[in-house]
Amino acid sequence: MDPISDILSHLDFAGMLYFSTEFSGDWGVRVPAYENVVRFHLVLRGECHVRIEGNNATNHIRQGDFLMIPHGAQHDLLAHPNAATPELETVLSDAGYDGKGQLIYKLRDDGAQTRLLCGHFSFSPQARRNHFLQSLPPFILARELPHEAAAWLAATLNMLATEANAPAPGNSIIVHHMTEVLFVQALRLWMQKEALPQGVLKAMGDPMIARALRALHDDPASPWTVESIARNAGMSRTVFADRFHNLTGTTPLKYLTGWRLEKARKLLQSGEQSVESAALSVGYQSTPASSRAFSKFYGFGPGQARKQDARDTRTIG
Q1: Contacts of 262 (CB under 8 A, 6+ apart)
Q2: Nearest CA to 31 among 158, 116, 108?
Q3: CA pair distance 148, 140, nearest whole angstrom
Q4: What CA–CA distances, in Å, run from 260 to 20, 100, 130, 248, 306?
Q5: Which of 37, 58, 100, 127 is least enclosed by beta carbons within 10 angstroms?
Protein backbone atom coordinates (compact mmCIF):
# COMPACT_ATOMS: atom_id res chain seq x y z
CA MET A 1 0.00 0.00 0.00
CA ASP A 2 1.35 3.46 -0.80
CA PRO A 3 2.00 5.66 2.28
CA ILE A 4 -0.82 8.15 1.65
CA SER A 5 -3.40 5.36 1.39
CA ASP A 6 -1.95 3.71 4.48
CA ILE A 7 -2.06 6.96 6.46
CA LEU A 8 -5.64 7.77 5.46
CA SER A 9 -6.80 4.30 6.47
CA HIS A 10 -5.70 5.08 10.05
CA LEU A 11 -7.30 8.55 10.39
CA ASP A 12 -10.90 7.34 10.75
CA PHE A 13 -12.02 9.91 8.20
CA ALA A 14 -15.72 10.68 7.90
CA GLY A 15 -17.42 13.26 5.71
CA MET A 16 -20.25 15.62 6.59
CA LEU A 17 -21.99 18.07 4.29
CA TYR A 18 -23.46 21.03 6.16
CA PHE A 19 -25.46 22.54 3.32
CA SER A 20 -25.42 24.04 -0.12
CA THR A 21 -25.66 27.82 0.03
CA GLU A 22 -26.94 30.65 -2.10
CA PHE A 23 -25.62 34.08 -1.10
CA SER A 24 -26.27 37.47 -2.69
CA GLY A 25 -25.75 41.14 -1.82
CA ASP A 26 -23.05 42.34 0.60
CA TRP A 27 -23.10 39.08 2.47
CA GLY A 28 -20.53 37.64 4.86
CA VAL A 29 -20.32 34.87 7.44
CA ARG A 30 -17.80 33.86 10.11
CA VAL A 31 -17.34 30.09 10.35
CA PRO A 32 -16.11 29.11 13.84
CA ALA A 33 -12.99 27.10 14.55
CA TYR A 34 -13.37 23.43 15.35
CA GLU A 35 -10.84 20.75 16.24
CA ASN A 36 -10.18 17.50 14.40
CA VAL A 37 -11.79 18.53 11.14
CA VAL A 38 -10.80 19.60 7.64
CA ARG A 39 -13.31 22.23 6.50
CA PHE A 40 -14.14 22.46 2.80
CA HIS A 41 -15.97 24.79 0.39
CA LEU A 42 -16.63 24.10 -3.28
CA VAL A 43 -17.66 27.11 -5.39
CA LEU A 44 -20.49 26.02 -7.68
CA ARG A 45 -21.33 29.48 -9.03
CA GLY A 46 -20.01 33.01 -8.71
CA GLU A 47 -17.14 34.05 -6.47
CA CYS A 48 -16.25 35.16 -2.95
CA HIS A 49 -13.35 36.02 -0.67
CA VAL A 50 -11.97 33.90 2.17
CA ARG A 51 -10.01 35.19 5.16
CA ILE A 52 -8.49 32.49 7.38
CA GLU A 53 -7.53 33.21 10.99
CA GLY A 54 -3.77 33.33 11.40
CA ASN A 55 -3.23 34.07 7.71
CA ASN A 56 -3.00 37.69 6.61
CA ALA A 57 -3.95 37.06 2.99
CA THR A 58 -7.51 37.23 1.67
CA ASN A 59 -8.09 34.59 -1.00
CA HIS A 60 -10.38 35.25 -3.93
CA ILE A 61 -12.09 32.02 -4.97
CA ARG A 62 -14.21 31.51 -8.06
CA GLN A 63 -16.46 28.96 -9.71
CA GLY A 64 -14.73 25.58 -9.86
CA ASP A 65 -12.35 26.28 -6.94
CA PHE A 66 -12.21 23.77 -4.06
CA LEU A 67 -10.91 25.06 -0.72
CA MET A 68 -9.90 22.88 2.23
CA ILE A 69 -8.88 24.22 5.66
CA PRO A 70 -6.99 21.26 7.16
CA HIS A 71 -6.77 22.43 10.77
CA GLY A 72 -10.36 23.63 11.17
CA ALA A 73 -9.39 27.28 11.71
CA GLN A 74 -11.97 30.04 12.04
CA HIS A 75 -12.50 31.74 8.71
CA ASP A 76 -14.65 34.38 7.04
CA LEU A 77 -16.51 33.96 3.76
CA LEU A 78 -17.29 37.35 2.20
CA ALA A 79 -18.87 38.88 -0.90
CA HIS A 80 -15.99 41.39 -0.88
CA PRO A 81 -13.05 42.07 1.49
CA ASN A 82 -14.90 44.82 3.43
CA ALA A 83 -18.18 42.96 3.99
CA ALA A 84 -19.42 42.46 7.55
CA THR A 85 -19.06 38.90 8.90
CA PRO A 86 -21.80 37.93 11.38
CA GLU A 87 -21.35 34.61 13.16
CA LEU A 88 -22.61 31.48 11.40
CA GLU A 89 -25.35 30.95 13.98
CA THR A 90 -26.63 34.49 13.32
CA VAL A 91 -26.71 33.90 9.57
CA LEU A 92 -28.57 30.61 10.02
CA SER A 93 -31.12 32.33 12.25
CA ASP A 94 -31.57 35.33 9.96
CA ALA A 95 -32.00 33.04 6.95
CA GLY A 96 -34.58 30.91 8.81
CA TYR A 97 -32.53 27.81 8.07
CA ASP A 98 -34.01 24.71 9.74
CA GLY A 99 -31.27 22.25 8.83
CA LYS A 100 -32.94 21.04 5.63
CA GLY A 101 -32.51 21.99 2.03
CA GLN A 102 -30.50 24.94 0.78
CA LEU A 103 -29.23 27.81 2.93
CA ILE A 104 -30.38 30.99 1.17
CA TYR A 105 -29.00 34.24 2.60
CA LYS A 106 -29.91 37.34 0.61
CA LEU A 107 -29.01 40.84 1.72
CA ARG A 108 -30.21 42.10 -1.66
CA ASP A 109 -32.30 40.47 -4.35
CA ASP A 110 -30.23 42.04 -7.09
CA GLY A 111 -26.60 41.38 -7.91
CA ALA A 112 -24.55 38.27 -8.51
CA GLN A 113 -25.23 35.08 -6.62
CA THR A 114 -22.62 32.84 -5.03
CA ARG A 115 -23.38 29.15 -4.57
CA LEU A 116 -21.20 26.96 -2.35
CA LEU A 117 -21.14 23.40 -1.05
CA CYS A 118 -19.80 23.48 2.51
CA GLY A 119 -18.84 20.76 4.96
CA HIS A 120 -15.98 19.01 6.68
CA PHE A 121 -14.00 15.80 7.01
CA SER A 122 -13.61 14.70 10.62
CA PHE A 123 -10.81 12.51 11.91
CA SER A 124 -9.81 10.81 15.14
CA PRO A 125 -8.71 13.31 17.83
CA GLN A 126 -5.65 11.15 18.54
CA ALA A 127 -4.58 11.49 14.89
CA ARG A 128 -3.59 15.13 15.47
CA ARG A 129 -0.04 13.88 16.14
CA ASN A 130 0.11 12.28 12.70
CA HIS A 131 3.03 13.63 10.63
CA PHE A 132 0.83 13.84 7.54
CA LEU A 133 -1.86 16.01 9.15
CA GLN A 134 0.69 18.22 10.89
CA SER A 135 2.46 18.89 7.59
CA LEU A 136 -0.65 20.16 5.81
CA PRO A 137 -0.70 23.95 5.26
CA PRO A 138 -3.31 26.36 6.74
CA PHE A 139 -5.35 25.97 3.57
CA ILE A 140 -5.34 23.94 0.36
CA LEU A 141 -6.84 25.57 -2.70
CA ALA A 142 -7.40 23.54 -5.87
CA ARG A 143 -8.07 26.36 -8.33
CA GLU A 144 -10.20 26.41 -11.42
CA LEU A 145 -10.99 22.74 -11.49
CA PRO A 146 -11.95 21.44 -14.92
CA HIS A 147 -15.71 21.30 -15.32
CA GLU A 148 -15.64 17.51 -15.11
CA ALA A 149 -13.68 17.56 -11.83
CA ALA A 150 -15.92 20.20 -10.23
CA ALA A 151 -19.03 18.28 -11.27
CA TRP A 152 -17.52 15.06 -9.92
CA LEU A 153 -16.72 16.69 -6.58
CA ALA A 154 -20.20 18.20 -6.32
CA ALA A 155 -21.84 14.87 -7.14
CA THR A 156 -19.69 13.10 -4.57
CA LEU A 157 -20.52 15.64 -1.86
CA ASN A 158 -24.23 15.36 -2.62
CA MET A 159 -24.03 11.58 -2.41
CA LEU A 160 -22.25 11.90 0.95
CA ALA A 161 -25.10 14.08 2.19
CA THR A 162 -27.67 11.53 1.00
CA GLU A 163 -25.88 8.68 2.76
CA ALA A 164 -25.48 10.69 5.96
CA ASN A 165 -29.16 11.70 6.06
CA ALA A 166 -30.69 8.36 5.11
CA PRO A 167 -28.76 5.51 6.78
CA ALA A 168 -29.14 2.19 5.01
CA PRO A 169 -27.31 -1.16 4.98
CA GLY A 170 -23.66 -0.55 4.08
CA ASN A 171 -23.96 3.18 4.82
CA SER A 172 -20.87 3.53 7.00
CA ILE A 173 -18.50 1.78 4.59
CA ILE A 174 -19.83 3.80 1.64
CA VAL A 175 -19.34 7.11 3.47
CA HIS A 176 -15.88 6.04 4.65
CA HIS A 177 -14.59 5.18 1.19
CA MET A 178 -16.29 8.09 -0.57
CA THR A 179 -14.66 10.49 1.89
CA GLU A 180 -11.22 9.05 1.28
CA VAL A 181 -11.70 9.27 -2.48
CA LEU A 182 -12.93 12.86 -2.24
CA PHE A 183 -10.03 13.97 -0.04
CA VAL A 184 -7.38 12.23 -2.14
CA GLN A 185 -8.82 13.58 -5.40
CA ALA A 186 -8.76 17.13 -4.04
CA LEU A 187 -5.16 16.63 -2.86
CA ARG A 188 -4.15 15.34 -6.28
CA LEU A 189 -5.66 18.33 -8.05
CA TRP A 190 -3.93 20.71 -5.65
CA MET A 191 -0.58 18.91 -5.93
CA GLN A 192 -0.62 19.27 -9.69
CA LYS A 193 -0.51 23.07 -9.48
CA GLU A 194 1.08 24.12 -6.19
CA ALA A 195 4.52 24.02 -4.57
CA LEU A 196 4.18 21.50 -1.76
CA PRO A 197 5.03 22.37 1.87
CA GLN A 198 7.47 20.33 3.91
CA GLY A 199 5.92 16.98 4.80
CA VAL A 200 4.96 13.51 3.57
CA LEU A 201 3.36 14.79 0.35
CA LYS A 202 6.55 16.61 -0.63
CA ALA A 203 8.63 13.56 0.29
CA MET A 204 6.45 11.36 -1.93
CA GLY A 205 7.48 13.54 -4.87
CA ASP A 206 11.12 12.47 -4.41
CA PRO A 207 11.51 9.00 -6.01
CA MET A 208 14.25 7.83 -3.63
CA ILE A 209 12.62 9.05 -0.41
CA ALA A 210 9.28 7.72 -1.65
CA ARG A 211 10.84 4.23 -1.92
CA ALA A 212 11.99 4.49 1.69
CA LEU A 213 8.56 5.60 2.88
CA ARG A 214 6.89 2.73 1.04
CA ALA A 215 9.30 0.27 2.69
CA LEU A 216 8.51 1.65 6.16
CA HIS A 217 4.77 1.49 5.58
CA ASP A 218 4.95 -1.99 4.05
CA ASP A 219 6.80 -3.42 7.04
CA PRO A 220 6.89 -1.05 10.05
CA ALA A 221 7.68 -3.92 12.46
CA SER A 222 11.02 -4.66 10.79
CA PRO A 223 14.10 -3.78 12.94
CA TRP A 224 14.87 -0.71 10.87
CA THR A 225 17.98 1.42 11.22
CA VAL A 226 18.79 4.60 9.33
CA GLU A 227 21.31 2.58 7.33
CA SER A 228 18.80 -0.10 6.31
CA ILE A 229 16.17 2.50 5.37
CA ALA A 230 18.79 4.36 3.31
CA ARG A 231 19.62 1.16 1.44
CA ASN A 232 15.98 0.87 0.38
CA ALA A 233 16.24 4.40 -0.98
CA GLY A 234 19.51 3.56 -2.80
CA MET A 235 21.38 6.29 -0.92
CA SER A 236 24.17 6.68 1.61
CA ARG A 237 23.12 7.04 5.24
CA THR A 238 24.21 10.68 5.57
CA VAL A 239 22.72 11.92 2.30
CA PHE A 240 19.49 10.04 2.94
CA ALA A 241 19.09 11.35 6.50
CA ASP A 242 19.66 14.94 5.37
CA ARG A 243 17.26 14.71 2.43
CA PHE A 244 14.58 12.95 4.49
CA HIS A 245 14.71 15.66 7.15
CA ASN A 246 14.69 18.48 4.58
CA LEU A 247 11.60 17.05 2.89
CA THR A 248 9.58 15.83 5.89
CA GLY A 249 10.75 18.03 8.77
CA THR A 250 11.56 15.00 10.93
CA THR A 251 14.12 12.19 11.11
CA PRO A 252 13.56 8.73 9.59
CA LEU A 253 13.43 7.03 12.99
CA LYS A 254 11.09 9.63 14.51
CA TYR A 255 8.80 9.20 11.53
CA LEU A 256 8.93 5.41 11.98
CA THR A 257 8.19 5.69 15.70
CA GLY A 258 5.19 7.92 15.07
CA TRP A 259 3.83 5.55 12.46
CA ARG A 260 4.35 2.46 14.65
CA LEU A 261 2.45 4.15 17.49
CA GLU A 262 -0.32 5.24 15.13
CA LYS A 263 -0.74 1.64 13.98
CA ALA A 264 -0.67 0.43 17.60
CA ARG A 265 -3.39 2.95 18.53
CA LYS A 266 -5.57 1.72 15.67
CA LEU A 267 -5.07 -1.91 16.70
CA LEU A 268 -5.92 -1.15 20.32
CA GLN A 269 -9.04 0.83 19.44
CA SER A 270 -10.29 -2.06 17.35
CA GLY A 271 -10.43 -4.06 20.58
CA GLU A 272 -9.03 -7.09 18.79
CA GLN A 273 -5.52 -7.07 20.30
CA SER A 274 -4.04 -6.78 23.77
CA VAL A 275 -1.45 -4.13 24.62
CA GLU A 276 1.28 -6.80 24.37
CA SER A 277 0.17 -8.17 20.98
CA ALA A 278 -0.27 -4.66 19.54
CA ALA A 279 3.26 -3.76 20.64
CA LEU A 280 4.68 -6.89 18.99
CA SER A 281 2.69 -6.25 15.82
CA VAL A 282 4.32 -2.87 15.25
CA GLY A 283 7.87 -3.88 16.11
CA TYR A 284 8.32 -3.47 19.87
CA GLN A 285 9.86 -6.47 21.61
CA SER A 286 9.22 -5.01 25.06
CA THR A 287 5.70 -4.11 26.18
CA PRO A 288 6.95 -1.63 28.85
CA ALA A 289 9.09 0.17 26.24
CA SER A 290 6.10 0.34 23.91
CA SER A 291 3.86 1.66 26.69
CA ARG A 292 6.35 4.38 27.63
CA ALA A 293 6.70 5.49 24.01
CA PHE A 294 2.93 5.43 23.54
CA SER A 295 2.28 7.50 26.67
CA LYS A 296 4.96 10.05 25.73
CA PHE A 297 3.58 10.40 22.19
CA TYR A 298 -0.16 10.60 22.97
CA GLY A 299 -0.26 11.75 26.58
CA PHE A 300 -2.17 8.68 27.72
CA GLY A 301 -1.40 4.99 28.00
CA PRO A 302 -2.22 2.16 25.58
CA GLY A 303 -4.72 0.70 28.04
CA GLN A 304 -6.74 3.91 27.87
CA ALA A 305 -6.58 3.83 24.06
CA ARG A 306 -8.46 0.53 24.05
CA LYS A 307 -11.39 2.22 25.79
CA GLN A 308 -11.63 5.24 23.51
CA ASP A 309 -13.98 5.51 20.55
CA ALA A 310 -12.18 5.58 17.24
CA ARG A 311 -13.86 8.87 16.30
CA ASP A 312 -15.15 11.92 18.07
CA THR A 313 -18.79 11.92 17.02
CA ARG A 314 -19.80 15.31 18.45
CA THR A 315 -22.10 17.30 16.21
CA ILE A 316 -20.62 20.45 14.75
CA GLY A 317 -22.91 23.43 14.90
Answers
A1: 10, 127, 129, 130
A2: 116
A3: 20
A4: 40, 43, 11, 17, 16
A5: 100
Using alpha carbons, select from 92, 84, 106 the residue that is nearest to residue 18: 92
Q: Give 86-144 pLDDT, tens digit per residue.
A: 999 999 999 998 877 788 888 776 668 899 988 888 887 777 777 788 888 889 888 76
Sign (positive or negative) of CA dihedral 115, 120, 121, 127: positive
d(CA 202, CA 56): 24
